[in-house]
Amino acid sequence: MQRQVTTMRVLRRHAAGVVTALLLGALAGRVQAQSVESSAYQQASGIITISSGSADGTITRIDVPSRSVTVATSDGRTVRGSVNPSVGGLELVKVGDQVTARYEEKLVFAVAPPSAATAPDHVDSIVVTSQGNELPAGVAALESTRTWTIVAADAAANTVTLVATDGGRVHTYDVASAEGQARLKQVKPGDKLTITYVSYVFGVVERKK
Q: Which of 173, 178, 108 is nearest to 147 (CA)?
């Protein structure tokens, strides 16, 4: 579904941007470019897709007053960024310290009959950062759930038409994955489609031993 894919990318950039702002400068933006693993599988509860990535680098320059950091990534690039004031311990960082970023996201698509109870729509997030007596670190997590009503499912065209459960504009989306296309043959108008998105990003500075 094209719109959901677009939403997922926006959330991905937001999540990666949290670590960028908190800790890693532009390094977090390189997480998926450097190393990405993706998978999709089908369970009784629905279709689940998982993507993960990582990036590593070495701090080559640091300016504590301006909170700017330069990092040489392990794939040969140089990135620069500013550390958010909420992150403690920047004054403990030295040239040569190692930076690591990790990222994972999960999407769950679950179809239920019209009479089934579904979780309420919600968006929850949390950010935790290091204190002043430890090397900088940060983690950000995001979870969102939204339920749609299926207006139509066209297995021949591999499209599904949805509307929010509280009404509004009707949207038609392409279904690209093989798992999703297989499920199109099983759904019918009036069914509910609940989409849950979960992601986390983690960044840490460590002293090379």
A: 108
Residue in the structure block whose two tokens are 């299926």: 150
**Do residues 203 and 22 make contact, with C-beta atoms less than 8 angstroms apart?**
yes
Please provide the DSSP assignment of the chain as one string.
-HHHHHHHHHHHHHHHHHHIIIIIGGGGGGHHHH-EEEEEEEETTEEEEEEEEEEEEEEEEEETTTTEEEEEETTS-EEEEE--TT---GGG--TT-EEEEEEEEEEEEEEE-TTS--PPPEEEEEEEE--TTS--EEEEEEEEEEEEEEEEEETTTTEEEEEETT---EEEEE--SHHHHHHHTT--TT-EEEEEEEEEEEEEEE---
Of residues 206 and 45, more confidence is placed in 206
pLDDT one-digit tens code per residue, 89-128: 989 999 999 988 888 888 888 999 999 888 889 999 887 7
CA distances from 120 to 53, 147, 194 (A): 30, 8, 10
CA distance 86 to 129: 7
| Count of structural domains, the chain | 1
The whole domain housing 136 covers: 2-206
Cβ neighbours for 44, distance < 8 A, ≥ 6 positions apart: none
**pTM of whole model > 0.85?**
no
